[in-house]
Fold these 2 entries.
Entry 1:
Amino acid sequence: MSTPENEVPELPSSTKLITTLGLVAMISGLLVVIVYEFTKPIIAENQRLATERAIFKVLPKANSRLTFQVSATGFTLSDDKANGPLIYAGYDAQLNLVGIALNSAAQGYQDTIKLLYGYQPSTGCITGFDVLKSTETPGFGTKITTDTKFLANFNCLEAKVNSEQTALAQKIKTVRHGTKSQAWEIDAISGSTITSNAIGRMLNQSGQDLHPIIMQNLEYLKKAKE
Amino acid sequence: MSQAIKKEVPLTLEVFTAGIWKDNPVFVMMLGLCPVLAVTNSVINSLAMGIASIFVLVCSNALVSLLRNFIPRQVRITTYIIIIATFVTLVDYMIQAISLDLYNRLGAFIQLIVVNCLILGRAEAYASKNGVLKSVVSALGMGLGFTLALVMLGGVRELLGAGQLLGYQIFSTQFEPWVVMILPPGGFIVLGCWLLLINYIEQRKTAKLVTMEAASHCTVKQ
């Protein structure tokens, strides 16, 4: 006769196991969908506001803006929700084009850094940026937004397109702190070299890809708001 | 027969306070050390991670406790993971809705709460064996203890590594920040220092109690 200690407990049926998992998954799905539906418009609005804030920060003279999607043939007027690379053209009160805001990204010290930067087609200068996403080390990598000497690089960082309008005339690059000698060079922050290099790499990549297309379609961008 | 039935311990203040100090998940149980070392490079990140963990811990423990008599042993871990992942997804959406900036700063660590052994450990060791109220109170204590540990690490690391606290400059501009404190090795160093200090305090407390007991024993003998 078996004692209660060595009795093998009865195994539950497969139906009970499936029912349990199914019910828990159903509760889980229901909760996720409710919260997703509730937060979806708030998240979308937060993203829109963050983009809007960044655009008018990098294009301070702009009063209004238009969004364009980059396509094989150039640019097509679009909205912020469109997939694929987007650029934002800023216009003043007289509907003159005052600059273009472009997205760029590169691997930093911790994770990918995402920026929105302002480009002036008339002068060929990059005139500022706003960090959209960064998990860089506080006090070091985060200096890219506070270090006045580093920000001075963007009073007019040269990003002109070559005469054939196929690429940048000069490659944008980050140089060691205190050794900047050319308008297309970025003077790195001492102690935040990896983050500074990432800024140089992403601006160069974005410049090589998009600045020639902007120059080829400049008239279209200028007249788009009219 | 009646002796074999284990009596459930009643809900006391001890259930709540145990997680904060005596059984602190970080300083005593050494659980969930991945986010502890990774996100504590500033106080605000530590605080946000702590609050997110409290939410997941309390909600998942409540649901596990509520369903404990219904979940067969064979599928309990799968079920706990589904429950924990659900609340992590909810907290992920909620942080995005509250602040995109904070969400971006915390990176992948919010999603990684799913695999925080503190949460699964409490579900398996406590919530699956106790009532809803006790599980929630215990989870709240554990969560607060976890947050306290995160903030203690984050405070020291931000102060020494950047000369700031909650983003405000504390030390003068002449202070040369200790770079290592912000970097991953800084997490290990500060955690080690806190463990050293806490164990020293505990040992002194125990030694004092032993001395007092011995003294009272001698007095009784005389």
Entry 2:
Amino acid sequence: MNKVLKYVFLAIIAVLIATVPLYSGAFITRFLIGVILYAIMAEGWNVIAGYTGYPSFGNVVFFGLGAYVTALCMINFHTPFILSLIFSSIAGALFAIIIGIPILRLKGHYFAIVTLGIGETMMAITFNVPFTGTGAGLSLPLASNPNLFYYVSLIVLVIFIVFLKFILSGRLGYGMIAVREDEDAAKMMGIDTVAVKIKAFAISGFFTAIAGGIYAYWSTFIDPPTVYDPVMSIKMIIMTVFGGAGTLLGPVAGAFIIIFLSDFLSTHFTILHTFFFGGLIVMTAIFLPKGLMDVLSQKGIGWKYFIENIRKHRV
Amino acid sequence: MRKIIAVFVMFLVVGSVALLSACAPKQKAPSVIKFGSAMSLTGKYAREGKFYKDGYLLWEKKINKAGGIKVNGKAYKVKVIIYDDESNPAKSQKLYEKLVTSDKVNFLLGPYSSGITIPDSSIAERYKIPMIEGGGASGKIFSRGYKYIFGTLPAAGNYFKNTIEMLHMMAYTGKNSAKTIEVVHSDSAFDNAVAAGAVRWVKAFGLKLTGVQEYPSGSNDLSSVLTKIKKSNPDVVLVAGHTHDALLFIKQAKENKVNTKLMAFTVGVQAVDFRQSLGNDANYAVGVTPWLASMNFKGAVFGTASEFAKTFKAAYGYAPDYHAASAVAGALAFQSAITKANSLDPKKVRDALASLDLKTMYGEVKFQANGQIAKGQAVIQVQNGKAYAVFPKQIAQKELLYPAPSWDKR
């Protein structure tokens, strides 16, 4: 009975989510497209940082690269949108492999610093290479139907989650978790840690680049400071950690709640919203360091859970 | 199971928000005309964003005090809704979509900066609701063939046109001539457009270009740029950057003893606090501006430029610069177009805007076919701590001081 109920619930949710543009206004649709794009990015960060244990601070580089590849393909070669997205994703994965080979040898904060630098470097390159339009940016045509972006991004997110679930139950998934828990031990057990790390990074780059490509056509204009904005990398991290790093649906929940709160606060408190939002992030880091998904998996929540968290993490 | 329920609850929240927005109480016979804007109130453009916000709100207050706008014999109050876009284009677009679809505003007032205005203009175009923006001057905003975007800042490519023409005239009269020019610009969308235009005008007026230099936006050190200028030693440097960059440029030029006969900046020189923070070093700096409080512009509602400045200062405690004036000019254009169209229909107001010719305290507001205002930039110079118009001749208040003395002789 419980199982039947579960499937009925799931089916209702799926239908409701898939048909959002049909019954809600354009603003809600735009809000959700933003959420889904961030969910894809946060999930991308989750793959390399949450599961593999390599905290990248420059994942926005894939987003920017994807945005530029899609924009350049659509402007210069008039390729269809979906085909451009495929080019973007391939570019994202290839770029991850190329930079991953040298930098995935670094560990901990050394890796974090290098990834931060790569984002900035790509921004500087884009600023100075003539065919990217330099600082003047690129304008894309106006899409005839804005709901297109909702369906495309939703399909990409669903594919990503299903793909990740599949990966996690296989050799690669266990390899990633082994690398996160103890890389040396994993190597001793015969896991090709280099290959595992590069594959994880490539998956991360592949999907983040698609999000960038969707953004480019959706917003109709991109320039380097917007699509290589380091704040986006930080947001991916906040969302994933808020929802629960190393959980399948944590980043999605994190993206939804963080964007919902941020938008809600900023429309109701025009100036003070940054204060409330910052305070909220601090509070969750103190009381829920393991994220929302961890809270949901607890049986019975009380003060004990929060106090235990504070004690364990020695705040 | 818990997770499934959690997801379901989450979805119910979205659903209810969606429903609420869909069935929001329809306003019965609205006697209010709603204007909406997403302005940069926090983030890197917070400083300029405040000028626009204050300008829009001052206009709102003034109009409502005078009884509102009359359409078809009925007086409408005015309401301006302003949100914070955090200086982020994606957020700005989202807020404009909200303004149009859930706040149901009648008309849109623009955001600040070209990089944010370009994507936002596509929202105005998609919903066919006219937007007048006073904060983006890049030609890219107006080159996409959009019908519903209007701008009150002169075209970016023409920012230095009058400055270069002035230099050309000096060369013509023979004395104190300036022959060589170097262009420096930040890598932002807007400054790229300004620099490209400046290079074009330098060539068109037959002056010599010694080089074009680009620096990263928000840079905290311009000494490498200045070293190169010292080497190429031009008579004139034209700098396209934001206020922060202009301040830094002058400070570091003094430190590095870079003496050029004239330094001109796109943004900064117009502002009072710019001159205050530099003190004596601000003297001789040249700027361009579409508006100064001392210019002889005059129009309905706010009277002359200086009367507007007085009203503004009384309301907010600081003197307005061209940002605020440009914002108010856009709002005045809407007011006049609504009256002229005698309707709140977006299409009719849009057509009225296209053929508008309005005298305001910001000068003549008349839009070109692409939507951008047909207006030039006056050249101004700081003399004894005050900014004066020096070119074109018709509005000049003082003679240009040229060449500027070297830093050690000031």
